[in-house]
Amino acid sequence: MIYNIMNLRRISNKLFEFDAHYPRSIIAAVLLLTVILGWKIFKLEMDAGLRSGLPREHAIVKSMEKIDELFSGSDIVIIGVESDSLFSKSTLSKLASFNDSLESISLISKVTSIFNQKQIIPDENGFNIESVLEEIPGDSLSFSVLRDRIEKSGVLGNLVSNDFKTMCFVGQINSSFEYDEFEFRKKIFELVNRYNGPEEFYVSSLPITRATVVESMQRDMRVYTPIALGLGILLLMISFRSWTGVFLPFFVVVLSIIWTFGIMGWLDLPLAFVGTLIPVMLVAIASNYGIHIISHYFEYSKVDPNGQRDQILKRTIRKVGIPILLAGLTTMVSFLSLLSHLLPRAREMGVLVSFGILVGFVLSILLIPSILILLPRPTYLSKEKSMVYINAFLVSMGRFFTKYNIQVLSILIFGGLWLSMGIKDLKVDTNPDSYFPANSSVKIANSKISNAFGGSTQLSILVEGDIFDPKVLKNIEQLTDHIKNKYNIVTKSYSIVDVIKKMHSGFNAGKSEYDVIPKERDLISQYMFLYSIAGDDDEFDVLLDDMEEPNYTQILLRMKEVRTSTIADIVDDTEQFIKANFYDDAPMELTGGATLLGVLSRMIVNGQLISLLVSVIIIFIIMAIVFRSFVGGLFATLPMGVSVIMMFGLMGYLNIPLDVTTMLLTSILVGVGVDYTVHFLWHLRDHIRNGDSLDQAITNTFRISGKGILFNGLSVVIGFSALLFSVFVPVQIFGTLVMGSISFCLFGALATLPALTSLTKPKFLFK
Questions:
Q1: Rounded distance between C-alpha atoms, residue 681 and residue 752, angstroms
Q2: How confident is the model at residue 174 (pLDDT cuts 50, 70, 90)?
Q3: Pick from 79, 156, 184, 608: most CB atoms within 10 A?
Q4: Three-state DSSP class for residue 503
């Protein structure tokens, strides 16, 4: 191990000699590569579709593709129209035209509204199929007749609200994946805006919500990336009070972003919505290595104001080269752990962020020394009181934590245990409605439609077999009743069973005792034949794969909100119910966009927890090898591990759910959080090897390396504070959590480690 470290030191010396001899060539090469890579940034395309981000092998994905082939899709868009004069002649005439325009959108396979809704009317020949709205009423009497028909037809609460002030149009989307959700959203709102006023229009749909999420994040990237860069520049200016100290880390950050997006362009990788977080991550992380180099360079320049620049730079690289290499390596490991992620886009982002971090590290050790060798040292370093207050504060802090180590550790242990108890209240959930503020149009529309019509999200169950077999139909009815009775989130259901029961009742003079599934298959077939004659040929495209001899059908369940934890519970419970009750019968499986969201969110979070554990173990092993000690590995990873537990506990106390967005927190926390402990322990051991006592080594570590660690942590916190300017609630929460967790890690390195090392005096520091 000593030999390997010596080799690393030789490599760092050779690297510095290369920087010192060819600084202009290095700068020119970096600029040339930046132009070549950056040229392709303009070719980047946003990927707003759902398909490319899904695991193609997942059973639900395959079943959704099957539904697209068999039926007219499973997703819906609901457009609600609210007015006090909803059933006036002029308003109904206008909405009839809107219904026709909505049907003309290519992605809408079918529109259900009172303008085309059919009802079964018993007559002497059995039953007749009539339109609910045969003609637009022109007076109060005809409206009274229409009101009576609406109440008897069963559309009240489904297509018309109970107070007759809101009407909805349900559009069936004919594909689950193969369409651009941005373009679909654009067409829907163009149509709505054309008809909007004086009536109020509300649009609600899971695909619409997804598209709005992507749009919000695109807008955020344009807003908070410049803010993050500006805040980073401000922090560096306050920290170093030198344009050199400001712009060298800044250039590294900008170049790492350009190179990362440029490589995406060269590889024809589209920018998914989760990729909009990449710039902020690189702003916060890629500057860290340059900050340590500049901090030590300025400190050594102050100690030796008459020294040669090349000698001071050589000493700096020798001092910080290996620690920043280890810091970069551990950060890359944490993000590469996303390769175990279920979603392809998350795996892709892990690789891209790791590439950006690698670029930041390489440019820091190549470009920054090459520029520093050409520039004069800042004049303020020669001033007697330069940085004296920061140094005094850091040294005092180190002495305080060393002197009162038992008390400090006791308080930290008590606080950590109290926070960790909040983990029991931590929830795993993703509700897209909670992504938006209360006054957003999406949230208002979803709330309006949920209250009036029971929600706009559908959960689908695919059933295979002889669909007109009474036993199969009774199984469908039993399963539907079980789900609706057990979960109040499910507000409505629609299946071929509902249609057949209505026909059976209608054929028997509308008597309620006949509102059941007929016992004979032939009778069911006859009913369907009669319906096909009286109704439209495409009436059941969304329910049956074939009108005469169907082999597949789907049960549609309407939900008032997309609470993924409940959806996942419904999926698990329903699968168990199917296995327990219908194991010898026709196959049934849950599918559709809502089911996919519920199942994947749970699998993603579970997978992320596994990747978290893997990355912590790998980083522990790396640190144990570096310090040649199990205890050394434990000391290096302990503050970060405790910070993860404390943050999860705090999320439990604050009722912040663990979802796909907040799970990215763990990758950042593990990767960045361990940097501070690596730098502290490495430099502490160096001072002890140079003959310092443990207490004096802690003081010198705070004096020489403390500023780099402090500025490093503050740059991450300040960088992610830009996310607080987002209009997107999860991004705001994400930014807050990252700021809090990194602060925990920074405090752990600057408080826990001095107290712990001074109390235990671990042997690995003295080897």
A1: 12
A2: confident
A3: 79
A4: helix
